[in-house]
Write a structure and sequence with these properties.
alpha+beta; GTP Cyclohydrolase I, Chain A, domain 1; 2 domains; 5-stranded mixed beta sheet; two-stranded antiparallel sheet; binds zinc ion
Length: about 220
């Protein structure tokens, strides 16, 4: 039996093919490829992508995806870094409530609609409130699970502003639960991530939760 060693040229070919596959994985698909994928999904549902009403749909879906997933092109750390200010002496809680967001769950790519509440206790840096809202949008406009998004927001604030503590609460409804599967309309998922004094000090946590619930109810 002649057990041949693979030829040098075969090895080269295998290497080249592997490199091409790798490059294809890393390359962002073109808009045309994305639209073709939408046509495939339309066909798979049982409809005809060439009928009049659907003719422009692949293009519209691709454009919508650019919006839904714009967060991949922004660096969350940079958003906070660019704008913080040194403030001496301000040592009260900063709370931004009811930041509305739309995201998509990474398991079904179905919409997640919710609100985020962010609080932190500055040490020496504060950031413009619009930047906090922007931070939420950047993480929301990616494929997400709510727990991960909650932690990412809190961790980024902790990392860049280095406050005494951060609290992030997110309440959201998941359309993968409300429009399919278990069909639980109205069910909302609440997640929270507490760091620093919000985790360690029950009084700070209580103050935060009171502010969240009732507008401004301060506790001593
Ligand atoms: Zn889901």
């Amino acid at each position: 039996m002649n057990k041949q060693k693979p030829l040098q040229s075969d090895l080269k070919l295998a290497e080249t093919l592997a490199a091409e596959r790798r490059a294809a994985r890393e390359r962002r698909p073109s808009r045309a490829e994305a639209e073709e994928a939408v046509r495939t999904l339309i066909r798979w549902t049982g409809d005809d992508p060439d009928r009049e009403g659907l003719a422009g749909t692949p293009e519209r879906v691709a454009r919508a995806y650019e919006e839904y997933f714009a967060g991949y092109h922004d660096d969350p750390v940079e958003i906070l870094q660019r704008t913080f200010e040194e403030v001496e002496g301000y040592d009260e809680m900063v709370l931004l409530r009811d930041i509305r967001f739309e995201s998509h769950c990474e398991h079904h790519m179905a919409p997640i609609l919710g609100r985020a509440h962010i609080a932190y206790l500055p040490d020496h840096r504060v950031v413009g409130i619009s930047k906090l809202a922007r931070l939420v949008q950047v993480y929301a406009k990616r494929l997400q699970i709510q727990e991960k998004m909650t932690a990412q927001i809190a961790n980024t604030i902790q990392q860049v502003l280095q406050p005494l503590g951060v609290a992030v609460v997110i309440e959201a409804s998941h359309q993968c639960m409300t429009t399919r599967g278990v069909h639980k309309p109205g069910a909302a998922l609440a997640t929270s991530r507490m760091l620093g004094v919000f985790r360690e000090n029950p009084a700070t946590r209580r103050e935060f939760l009171a502010m969240l619930r009732g507008g401004a109810t301060f506790e001593d």
